Automatic annotation (TrEMBL):
<protein>
    <submittedName>
        <fullName>Uncharacterized protein</fullName>
    </submittedName>
</protein>
Length: 428
C-alpha cells in the first residue's frame, strides 16, 4: 500500500516548482521532482509516466540515462526514494513558502542539467519550457545560457525540422526553442551579436520561416519577434524568400491583419517593408501571395500608423510591373488611395501621390483616369498645386496634370473653375 494519500499528493504538487530539490530526486528524463519513482532493470530510477512513455509510446529499447539496451521492460516502485522525497518535502515546505527565489547558482546548475539532457531526452519540450522560465529571470541567466553553449543546442533543435517537419515532437521542440530564443533577443550586451549570428544562419532562418507558416499562434509570434530583431541587421533576405517566400508572405499578411495583437501586427508590417526594401526579387512573390489585395482591403479601417505602413508597401509593390497590374485590377484600389490622400499625414499624402503617379505613368487607362476623377483624386491633386515652393511631390502632381489634364477636363463632373485653372497653369 502506498504511503502517499491523494490529499498529500495534491498538497505537495504546488511546491515542486518552488523548492530547490536535490538532484537525486529529479527524473532523469523530465528533470522534475518525482512523484511516482520506479526502478528499471538497469537500476536507474525514473518518474513512472515518463519511463512508460519512453518504452511504450516512443517504442524505445534503451535506458535513457545509460543508453544500455533493455530486454526487461518491467518497472518496480522505489518506495524508499518516495519516502525520502516526502520527508524532504515536509521538512522544506515551511521554509519554501517564505523563502525568496532560488539562488542564481542553483538555477545555473539546473540549466546545465537541462542542456545536457536535451540531446538524448525524448521530452525536449518540457526541458525547453524550463529553460525558457530560467532565461526569463534576467540578463544574468541569459548570459549564463549563452556561455554554457545554449545557442548551439538551440540551433541544432531549430534546424532539425528541415530534415522532417512532419515529426510532431521535433516540430514542437523547434517551437519551444524559438521561445527561448525569443527571450534572448532582448539581451543588451555584447553577447547579443552571438544571438544575431545564430539567427542569421540560412538553415535557422528557413526553419523560422516554416514555423511562421505552420506553427502554433504563440510560436508564430516568437518567429515574428525574431525576424524583427534580424531586420535591424544586414541579413540577405533572399536566403528565405527564395524557398519560403510565398508561404511566408501569406503568414505575415495574416499576422499583419490581426486587429487584436497590434504589436505583432506592427512587427509583421515592419518586416514586410524591410524585405521588400532590401530585395526587389521578393516583390513578385509578395504579389503572388496576394499582398496587394489584402493591403488594399486593410487600408480603409486602419489607423494612421498602420495606414502609412500599408501605403509604403503598396508603393513598393507598384514600383514593379506585376504590382501595378495587381493594383489596377482591384476595383477598390484607386478609391481607397484617393480617400487617404489627405486623411493620413503629410508622409501618407506623399506616398499616395507616388502611387497614383506610378499608375498614371505606366497604366493610364481610361478606367483608371475615370476613377481618379470620380473618387476625387484629381481635385485633391489640384489643391496640392497651391503648395509653396518646389518638391518632388508637387513635381509629380504637375506631371500627372500635364499628361492627363485634357482627359479629365472632358468629364461633365469636372468643375469649370478647375478647367480654367488647369488651362492657365499648364500653358504658363
Amino acid at each position: 500500500m502506498s504511503i502517499f494519500s491523494p490529499t498529500m499528493e495534491m498538497g505537495k504538487s504546488n511546491l515542486d516548482s518552488e523548492m530547490e530539490f536535490p538532484q537525486d530526486f529529479r527524473c532523469p528524463i523530465s528533470m522534475e521532482l518525482m512523484k511516482e519513482p520506479v526502478i528499471i532493470s538497469t537500476g536507474v530510477t525514473y518518474e513512472r509516466k515518463n519511463i512508460e512513455k519512453w518504452f511504450f509510446s516512443y517504442k524505445k529499447k534503451t535506458c535513457p540515462a545509460t543508453m544500455q539496451n533493455i530486454v526487461n521492460f518491467s518497472v518496480t516502485p522505489n518506495h524508499t526514494l518516495k519516502r525520502l522525497i516526502l520527508e524532504w518535502q515536509n521538512g522544506h515546505s515551511q521554509s519554501s513558502s517564505s523563502s525568496s527565489s532560488p539562488s542564481p547558482s542553483f538555477k545555473r546548475d539546473e540549466m546545465v542539467s537541462l542542456l545536457k539532457t536535451l540531446g538524448s531526452s525524448p521530452f525536449k519540450v518540457k526541458s525547453l519550457k524550463k529553460l525558457k522560465e530560467i532565461v526569463e529571470i534576467g540578463d544574468e541567466m541569459k548570459l549564463d545560457f549563452i556561455i554554457l553553449g545554449g545557442l548551439d543546442v538551440l540551433s541544432e533543435l531549430i534546424v532539425q525540422i528541415l530534415l522532417d517537419c512532419s515529426d510532431f515532437m521535433e516540430f514542437r521542440a523547434c517551437e519551444e526553442a524559438l521561445g527561448v530564443l525569443h527571450h534572448l533577443i532582448t539581451l543588451e550586451h555584447q553577447e547579443d551579436g552571438k544571438v544575431i549570428e545564430l539567427m542569421s544562419k540560412p538553415e535557422c532562418m528557413k526553419s523560422i520561416a516554416i514555423v511562421l507558416q505552420r506553427g502554433s499562434k504563440e510560436a508564430r509570434v516568437y518567429a515574428i519577434s525574431i525576424l524583427k530583431k534580424l531586420s535591424n541587421s544586414n541579413f540577405d533576405w533572399n536566403v528565405i524568400v527564395k524557398d519560403q517566400g510565398i508561404g511566408m508572405f501569406k503568414s505575415m499578411l495574416e499576422l499583419a491583419s490581426d486587429e487584436i495583437a497590434t504589436k505583432t501586427s506592427s512587427s509583421a508590417f515592419q518586416i514586410f517593408i524591410k524585405i521588400l526594401d532590401s530585395s526587389k526579387k521578393s516583390r513578385s512573390k509578395a504579389i503572388e501571395a496576394g499582398a496587394m489585395c489584402t493591403l488594399i482591403e486593410l487600408l480603409p479601417d486602419s489607423n494612421r500608423s498602420k495606414c502609412e505602413k500599408i501605403l509604403h508597401i503598396i508603393k513598393l509593390l507598384c514600383e514593379c510591373a506585376d504590382g501595378r497590374v495587381a493594383f489596377v485590377d482591384h476595383r477598390l484600389a484607386i478609391g481607397v488611395v484617393s480617400k487617404k490622400l489627405f486623411d493620413v499625414s503629410e508622409t501618407g499624402s506623399k506616398i499616395c501621390v507616388k502611387i497614383l503617379w506610378l499608375i498614371c505613368s505606366f497604366h493610364p487607362t481610361e478606367k483608371v483616369l475615370e476613377e481618379m476623377m470620380m473618387y476625387g483624386a484629381v481635385k485633391k491633386l489640384v489643391v496640392l498645386l497651391h503648395m509653396s515652393g518646389q518638391s518632388s511631390m508637387k513635381n509629380k502632381v504637375l506631371d500627372m496634370l500635364k499628361k492627363h489634364g485634357n482627359s479629365w477636363s472632358r468629364y461633365p463632373c469636372f468643375p469649370n473653375e478647375l478647367k480654367e485653372y488647369l488651362c492657365l497653369h499648364l500653358h504658363s
